[in-house]
Amino acid sequence: MPAEGTVYVIDDDPAMRDSLDFLLDAAGFEARLFESAVSFLAALPALGPGCVVSDVRMPNLDGIELLRRLKETNKPFPIIIMTGHGDVPLAVEAMKLGAIDFIEKPFEDDRLIGTIKAALSSAAQRHKGEAVTADIASRIASLSPRERQVMEGLVAGLSNKLIARNYEISPRTIEVYRANVMTKMQASSVSELVRLAIRGGLLKD
């Protein structure tokens, strides 16, 4: 069965780690187990994308402090917090710090699996969106200073003649720059160019 994604399990209870390892493997996930948040953070630089499932109460460094530490890194893992019945206020605090959900123990297997799938799907979409935005920004960066000026004029709704007048060059030259802009930005129309400018941060929506 192909792996559905990597799930990083953090729990100081060996029985819980073993149980989750079995459950996640059966559901098609690759499970990586950690006995503490400290050991997880130590391994963090080498870890690939995935989802974190962490207990909220652990010795040395608990789930709340783990969230605070992760916010300081450039690895925005979706995090699901496991909590005992009396720890709901802690779980709410965890969600305020960025956890996407909390699950009370004992939990239903299907609910945990469904939450993990949703978390991984959301993370994949966010990663895809970030990659698209970075690609558009690189296209904008590839423009020469004059091409960027022409693009700014186009997305502002200016005609070739007005752009030419602003920069005291001929409309024919503007046409050449405009063609270059459309090619480099991979845009087939001005409306598409506007959408790219917004996505790339050149134009505020």
Second rung of CATH, namely the architecture of the largest domain: 3-Layer(aba) Sandwich
Question: N-to-C SSE series?
Answer: EHEHEHEHEHHHHH
Radius of gyration using CA atoms only:
24 Å
CATH topology label of the largest domain? Rossmann fold
Q: Provide the structure class.
A: alpha/beta
What overall form do the CA principal axes indicate?
elongated
Low-confidence stretches: none
Number of separate structural domains:
2
Report helical residue fraction: 55-70%
What's the quick description here?
By secondary structure, the protein is an alpha/beta fold. It has helices at 14-26, 37-43, 63-71, 88-96, 109-141, 145-155, 160-167, 171-185, 190-199, and strands at 6-10, 30-34, 51-55, 79-83, 101-104.
Task: Describe the protein in words.
It is a single chain. The protein is α/β, with parallel strands linked by helices and about 200 residues long. It has two domains: about 5-135, Response regulator (Rossmann fold, 3-Layer(aba) Sandwich), CATH 3.40.50; about 140-200, Orthogonal Bundle (Arc Repressor Mutant, subunit A). About 55% of the residues lie in helices and about 10% in strands. The chain is built from nine helices and five strands. Strand 4, helix 4 and strand 5 form a beta-alpha-beta unit. Helix 6 (about 145-155) packs across helix 8 and helix 7 (about 160-165) packs across helix 8. The model has no long low-confidence stretch (mean pLDDT about 85).
